[in-house]
Write a structure and sequence with these properties.
- The protein is α/β, with parallel strands linked by helices.
- It has a single domain, classed as Rossmann fold (3-Layer(aba) Sandwich), CATH 3.40.50.2020.
- The protein has 6 helices and 12 strands.
- It has helices at 11-20, 28-47, 83-92, 141-150, 168-177, 207-212; strands at 2-4, 52-58, 63-69, 74-79, 97-107, 113-121, 129-133, 136-137, 158-167, 183-191, 193-194, 200-201.
- The strands form 3 sheets. Strands 1, 4, 5, 6, 7, 8, 9 and 10 form an 8-stranded mixed beta sheet that branches. It has a two-stranded antiparallel ribbon with strand order 2-3. It has a two-stranded antiparallel sheet with strand order 11-12.
- Helix 1 runs antiparallel to helix 2 (28-47) and helix 2 (28-47) packs across helix 3 (83-92).
- It is globular and about 70 Å long.
- The model has no long low-confidence stretch (mean pLDDT 92).
Length: 216
Amino acid sequence: MIHVLGHKHSLLNEYIAEVRDVEIQKDSLRFRRNMERLGEIFAYEISKTLAWEEQEVITSLGVARCERLVNQPVIATILRAGLPMHQGVLNYFDRAENAFVSAYRKHRKDGRFDIQIEYTSCPSIDNKVLILGDPMLATGSSMVLAYKELIRKGKPVHTHIISVVASIQGIEYLKKHLLNDDFTVWLGTVDDELTAKAYIVPGLGDAGDLAFGSKL
């Protein structure tokens, strides 16, 4: 199932407009905070789909029957661009375990590139809910490779994939390669164009550079 949250009017659309805006992007602190806010919105929406149970909570005046999460998810992100959005998800699932995957584009001389996984830190995700995030879903190959790397640590009961801006090609790639797995995709917005160098247009640029500065 695929949810595009930007199809409905909400503050999410305001934050997406700001992370796209070249003038606002000059303020890396604001860019990171907006990505964090978007992560919080994704977390809130995902929370509606999780398992809940009624528990007794002792107040200063008596006992209240309250709904509580049965289990916290495992939150995973693709370094480094996904860190601000990851923090937003963690703000809401504040007792969750965390996983990190280092993936990068290794460019060839012919202009094409391969996705390389260099480092993974992950707890057991067997029979747990996994939330896997990356701000940009361009070709979709990084997300699929990161997911396949993570499931070496167990098979999640369900996976939620989150991304702020996606391309149509990236969505189709996920459908093709994760078709037999139990997953839900949560997107902020979808752009039509993907360039020959696999950049989303209009997109927003390099989320990692905008958040943390340019790299060599």
